[in-house]
Give the backbone structure.
Amino acid sequence: MFTGGLIGFEDAIASLQRLQATGVQLDCIQTPSAQRVLDQRLIASVGMRDVTKNLVTDHDMLILPTLTANIAAKVAHGIADCLASNVTAEFIMSNRAIVASKSPVCPDSSGKKQWYPNIPAGYADLLRGNLATLASFGVRLAEARALCRTAIAAFEARDRLQRGPLVAALGTSAAGLSAAADKPAVLPAAAASAPAGNVVVCHDRLLSQRLVQQLPEGTELHVAANTVITALAQDTAAARSIRILREG
């Protein structure tokens, strides 16, 4: 969701392009101020799908690539009187993942310092305090250029939470399960020597549980050497006898 923060806008667009390239489906909505002040051609270059309905229920994560001081202040103080503050508040209250660029708001960001080199100390503390409150709500704050890796880290964190019931069922520790998940999914020797089944090549840079669940059991899945494989995707592959092979 784009609001009208200009600082770090181009870095945010580059981050979203990298995230989209991993295979993550990005939907987009803009506030009226974003439509007025942001370069619409750059936003269109990401290739996102415009949406206007079911903004919370149909989405796993909210990304705020151009967070404004106005929206940060509203949400930090429980005010939800516009599109951006209302949607953000609903994500927070639903305990859904939120990633936001702090570049337009944080007085310590390089862009903010360049635009406003003489911010009074009291006002700078106010801005920092609002960001700290957002962080206490679970919002992941990052510089605009780091939105991609921050979003992927948030996906990984969600996967770890979803693996909780599996930890209990297996009677092992979360650390032990994580160590097992770090290993490639390998078929037993007997199965490996059996006639080859389906072979699927995945070109996405992020392999998620959702994709693995769509494959038939026993599939041999080829991914690129630099593909990010979520822990839950590895667990699902192992459970479904899906062998993941890195190419290159």
